Amino acid sequence: MSKKRRSSKKLSRPEVHQPPSEPQAVESLTVFWSLCIFATLVLVVAALLLRVSVAFWQPAENASNTWTGFADLLLFSAIISGSVGGILTPIVQSQRKRRAPKSLQRAALAIAISPWILLALLVARS
User: What's the pTM?
Assistant: First the structure.
């Protein structure tokens, strides 16, 4: 059995890193945009689930309780983060060299608009 010897050139050679294709500020803006959109999605889903669970488990005459207030707080947070994400969508796409696919842009805008639609439905219902 023979042992393979590694050459010292391969071990001592430093790795060559490719320079980033986008400036760091644009990358940071992209990360912030995607976090805003993801936070909006999570907050809208949580607000909807909380509203639905309160509707099933609470009597209708006692609708203004702590859980409904918490659902409204989640919806307000979703409106704020969704508005920021919606405003940032065209800014991020114009700053990047390599744009996101159109389907991702449309999904981001749909998620950013969804808390406003939910608020309109809740106002129309009450």
Answer: 0.77
